[in-house]
Amino acid sequence: MIKTKLTIVCPDNLSEIVMAQKKIWSNILMLFISHLAETNRASFDLPNAKVESVAGYNVEYAWDEDLIVHYLYKPMS
After folding, report:
1. Torsion angle in degrees (nearest 10) through CA of 11, 13, 14, 20
2. How far apart are CA 51 and CA 60, in angstroms?
3. Cβ distance 42 to 36 under 8 Å?
4. What's the number of domains the chain is made of?
5. For residues 12 and 6, what is the distance between their CA atoms, to the nearest angstrom?
6. How far is the CA of 33 from the CAs of 28, 42, 54, 76, in angstroms?
7. What family does this chain come from, according to its entry (predicted)?
8. Distance (Å, rounded) from C-alpha 63 to C-alpha 43?
């Protein structure tokens, strides 16, 4: 979180970092997102989801081509 603040503020001196932290809502948002990521909660645990094995974001659809080719060429042979 410190690196994020430094990236956002790009300070020339340390007092600018202190002044940037007065915006409490951005700090709360960053803290909340980092806690979600650390505890593997919503939207950060997609690879470990139970639904992923059936309908996840990285389901492989390569069998479609094999199935089409199988049914197209089988009657010809």
Report:
1. -40
2. 14
3. yes
4. 1
5. 10
6. 9, 10, 27, 57
7. Belongs to the complex I subunit 1 family.
8. 28
As a whole number of Å, the end-to-end CA separation of the chain is 64
Q: pTM for the complete prediction?
A: 0.34
What is the tens place of the pLDDT at every residue in 15-65?
Answer: 777 777 777 787 788 888 887 777 766 665 555 555 555 555 555 555 556
User: What's the one-letter identity of residue 38?
Assistant: E
Q: Which two tokens stand for residue 34?
A: 């980092």
Q: How far is CA 52 from CA 31, 45, 46, 60, in A?
A: 27, 10, 7, 11
Domain that holds residue 58: 2-73
Q: Are 3 and 11 in contact (CB under 8 A)?
A: no
CA-CA distance, 9 to 17, in Å (whole number)? 7
